[in-house]
Amino acid sequence: QVQLVESGGGLVQAGGSLRLSCAASGRTFNNYAMGWFRQAPGKEREFVAAITWSSSTTYYANSVKGRFTISRDNAKNTGYLQMNSLKPEDTAVYYCASSFGLYQRPDMYDDWGQGTQVTVSS
Question: What are phi and psi of 4, to 5 degrees?
Fold first, then answer.
């Protein structure tokens, strides 16, 4: 099992930026792909971005493509989500998760963090 802890959320104005971090411990982090998801109140959890263990491949939801960048530093057992040009509709709790591959479906991810709140004001 991989233990994941997100940080870096907060309140930001529209057009601003935030960088989320996902610190991993437990099983070897760099054996697994990492994904970011988000969930707004009253909505289902949705895919945001994913990255392979080697960082060779990344995948983004259309809604964040060109604005968000996923990355990871296996030496630090940490993943990141750089979020630029934030919009009010990006407001949600953001979760990181680990998996054996690049998937959009949340049920394909085995381990999850507790989430970090991102609020974008207009």
Answer: -125, 135
